[in-house]
Write a structure and sequence with these properties.
Helix content is 45%, strand content 16%. The chain has 322 residues and is α+β, with helices and mostly antiparallel strands. It has a six-stranded mixed sheet with strand order 2-1-6-5-4-3, with helices on both faces. Helix 2 crosses helix 3 and helix 9 crosses helix 10.
Amino acid sequence: MTETLAPAQEELEQYRGELRGYCYRMLGSAFDADDAVQETMVKAWQGLDRFEGRSSTRSWLYRIATNVCLDSLRAKKRRALPMDLASAGSAAGPVGEPLPQEVWVEPIPDGDLDDPAQSAVFRDTVRLAFVAALQHLPPKQRAVLILREVLCWQASEVAELLDTTVASVNSALQRARATLGERGLSEGSPQVPLQDGDRELLARYVSAFEAYDIPSLVSLLSEDAGFSMPPLPLWLRGPEDVAAFYLGTGIGCKGSRLVPTSANGCPAFGHYKPAADGDGYVPWALQVVEVSDGRLVHLHHFLDTAALFPRFGLPDRLPHDR
């Protein structure tokens, strides 16, 4: 491919960001979404001479991306969060053996999502719990719900894309909504953007975590707050168990530092533990923090720092005086 893209190819490239958001919701993995978007672009570039303009370029790309995602999903198991796989565990129990990365829904940087629906709906529809819930839908229902409720396509447009009828699209959407409702989620209830009080709450969280003041930290949690650490299957519920974990199995986190970022429409932090050689701090986890009603409601800790820290633009080490 030459360094200068043809005008038609440049037009395709402007959709890469929003296609990534679509494929991420479909597949539950930022890295799988990258692969799907790249395959979509290659197929589009190769088919430019066969594009007859009977639909918009955007619709044509989404048709290709949908087919790529559907093909990918035929060969893969549903991704999940620890809460989808088992009941809450105990801080006194074993953390369990790590499960393969392809088991888990993965976080994605907000900056990777160039979404035409990036408004109130955006934050809600990239939440980890929502993306995990989407994985429970059959692939075509998943596509219908994302296209109709997230990207605001007309039923007739979705029917044309999927080579089906409007009645079939409406039926699939109804079934998808019902499934999400059974899981306590709604695509129509967007999160409220962070308020000043929420920012103060996060500042208090960072201060308590870095001081390892566990009583102060857990005082910020909701009564049924969750705590998870993919790829480990263990997850905990409630301030008491979270405190017990931090003061027991997780005591190695004492003295850690946090670097702010954002993921899935939520505040997030690069979590660095003291290096074993005493020279600064090394990556330990990407924390994604969910906030609601003035409390922290879930602390996700993704331990695959080798893949996630570069993606989030986080340094591979912090100096000792950080």
